[in-house]
Write a structure and sequence with these properties.
100 residues; alpha+beta; 2 domains; two-stranded antiparallel ribbon; 2 strands; rod-shaped; transmembrane
Length: 100
Amino acid sequence: SYWLFYIVQITEGVRASVTGEDVLEYRALVAYSSNLTDTLLFIHYLAVVLIEVRHLQPTYYIKVVRSPDGESRAYCIGQLSIQRAAVWVLERYYTEFPIY
C-alpha cells in the first residue's frame, strides 16, 4: 500500500505539471510518504500489543478426582465461567470415567 500511495502522488504531480496546475514539491511528497510510513508502523505496533494482551487472559486447568476409588483426570478448559465449567466437567465425567 505504501508504494501505491507513493505512485499516486507522483502521477498526480506529473499530471499537475502537464496541465499547468501547481506542481507538487518533492518535500511534500517525502513528508506524505514519511507520515504514511509512521502511520503504518503505528498500526503494526498496535496490532502486536493487542495480540500480546489477548494472550494474557487466564486459562484454567482442572483436575477431577473421584473420591471412592481415586480415579482422576485433568482437563485444560480455557476460559469458561464456573457454571459452564461445571457442565463441561460433568459431561466429561459421564463419558470418560469408567463406571464405578
